[in-house]
Amino acid sequence: MLSYENRSSMAQPTPTPPSDHHLPLASTSPNNTLPSGTSISAQPSAGSPPTEHHHLWLITGPAGCGKSTVAEFLAQRMGLPFIEGDSFHPQSNVDKMSRGIPLTDADRWDWLIRLRTEAMARLASTGAQGVVLTCSALKRKYRDVIRVAPYYSHDLRVHFVSLHAPEEVLTARVMARPGHFMGAHMVHSQFDILEPPERDEDDVISVDVSGPIEQVEAEALAKIQEVIRSELVRGS
To answer: What family classification does the UniProt entry report for this protein (predicted)?
Structure first.
């Protein structure tokens, strides 16, 4: 979901066990293919030093915050596969959003499970050290659906790169983006249900996206590299 039209412009928490009925688990892997331009490299670049774990890097935030732009940059710099979360929405969800109808929790469960399943499948099929994935993850319980992933792969670490900016900034960006199913009116509905990460969600990296995209990308990459360096220090 590209929002910057002009480019000029952690310790892992313990997730709720899978028995929690609020975190649906059963899913089948979707047949969606990656969008054009997606990185499928399994080799880490200079921006991603090897670690002893595998990583899911979720780029999160409301519409207009630049999730796809930032995620594609990070995937390219770190040499990791990139998954565009919007492409995994069922058509019923796309139709609702196109009509300006906010998605409910029930609309999102299967989508979140598909993303989690696809990310883990991409790790297994490519041999990559990590995957970069876009997902709005507006509520804590949505993030918790993804946090269950390490129960199925014990060397997996989940991280959220939370992109944020004032509502009026993101609304203006969405209004300038033609042809996307997510209209500007949906930004307000997403802010209505947004649950910013809490202090105990220490797998979250916060990045302000109010500034130029180059600044946002550099900050996100630097913070990810710091997480990886911290892991290497702990493991040494």
So the answer is: Belongs to the gluconokinase GntK/GntV family.
CA 59, 60, 61, 64 dihedral sign is positive
> Is 9:188 a contact under the CB 8 Å cutoff?
no
Q: In which residue are the tokens 């992109």 written?
A: 163
> Please, what's the largest Cα pairwise distance for the chain?
53
Tokens 């995620």 found at: 71
Q: Is 125 helix (H, G, I), strand (E, B) or coil?
A: helix
182 pLDDT above the threshold of 90: no
- What is the residue extent of each domain of the chain? 54-235
Pairing of strands 130-134, 54-60: parallel
The residues pairing with 83 across neighbouring beta strands, listed in sequence order, are 133
With 0-12 / 13-18 / 19 or more C-beta atoms within 10 angstroms meaning exposed / middle / buried, residue 42 is middle
Alpha-carbon distance of 9 to 172, in angstroms, equals: 14
19-77 pLDDT, tens digit per residue, is 343 333 333 333 333 333 333 333 444 455 566 789 999 999 999 999 999 999 999 99
Question: Domain 54-235 falls in which CATH fold?
Answer: Rossmann fold (3.40.50)
pLDDT digits (tens, 9 = 90+) for 74-120: 999 999 999 999 999 999 999 998 888 888 999 999 999 999 999 99
